[in-house]
C-alpha cells in the first residue's frame, strides 16, 4: 500500500487518508495511536 501512496505523491496526486505504521508495532498500540490522531486532529487537517 505504501508503495502506491508514494507513487501518487510523486506524481503530484493527493494522498488523503493513509498513515504508515511499522509492522513491528503491536496492533492494539497502532489502533490506540490512530484513535489519538483522529481525536487530536482538526477537521480537514489530513486532506491531501
Largest sheet: none
Structural class: mainly alpha
Count of DSSP strands: 0
Rg computed from alpha carbons, rounded to a whole number of angstroms: 12 Å
In N-to-C order, the SSE pattern is HH
Report on the architecture of this protein:
With 48 residues, the protein is an all-alpha fold. The chain has one domain (2-40). The chain is built from 2 helices and no strands. It has helices at residues 2-10, 27-40. The longest helix is centred in the C-terminal third of the chain and has 14 residues, at 27-40. The mean pLDDT is 87.
Supply the key terms.
48 residues; flat
Give a brief rundown of this model:
With about 50 residues, the protein is mainly alpha-helical.
Amino acid at each position: 500500500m505504501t508503495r502506491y501512496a508514494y507513487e501518487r505523491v510523486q506524481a503530484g496526486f493527493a494522498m488523503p487518508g493513509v498513515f504508515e505504521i511499522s509492522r513491528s508495532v503491536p496492533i492494539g498500540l497502532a489502533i490506540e495511536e490512530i484513535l489519538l490522531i483522529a481525536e487530536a486532529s482538526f477537521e480537514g487537517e489530513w486532506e491531501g
